[in-house]
């Protein structure tokens, strides 16, 4: 069951559900209010998981750069 990224409640997925797309992902919302909140600032709601992945990738890239530098 999809989760409303704004308020965190579970949303039933259906053809009449309120949804928005961001970076190829579909997000479901309990209300228009949550959707407009999401649309105003999708990055801060969308993707906790995606952001963490990006941070992790950045970190490992930084470590690799660090290893290449002479001490
Ligand atoms: Zn909501």
Brief characterization of the structure:
The protein has a two-stranded antiparallel sheet with strand order 1-2. 14% of the residues are buried.
Describe this structure in words.
With 71 residues, this protein is of the alpha+beta class. The relative contact order is 0.15. A hairpin with a 2-residue loop joins strand 1 and strand 2. It has a two-stranded antiparallel sheet with strand order 1-2. The chain is built from three helices and two strands, in the order ββααα. The chain has one domain. The protein binds zinc ion. The site of zinc ion has 8 residues, from loops. This is YHS domain-containing protein. One of its GO terms (molecular function) is oxidoreductase activity. It holds the Pfam family YHS. InterPro entries: Ferritin-like_SF, RNR-like, TRASH_dom, YHS_dom.
């Amino acid at each position: 069951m999809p989760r409303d990224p704004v308020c965190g409640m579970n949303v039933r997925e259906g053809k009449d559900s309120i949804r928005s797309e961001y970076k190829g992902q579909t997000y479901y919302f309990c209300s228009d209010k949550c959707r407009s909140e999401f649309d105003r600032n999708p990055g801060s709601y969308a993707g906790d998981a995606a952001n963490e992945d990006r941070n992790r990738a950045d970190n490992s890239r930084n470590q690799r750069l660090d290893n290449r530098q002479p001490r």
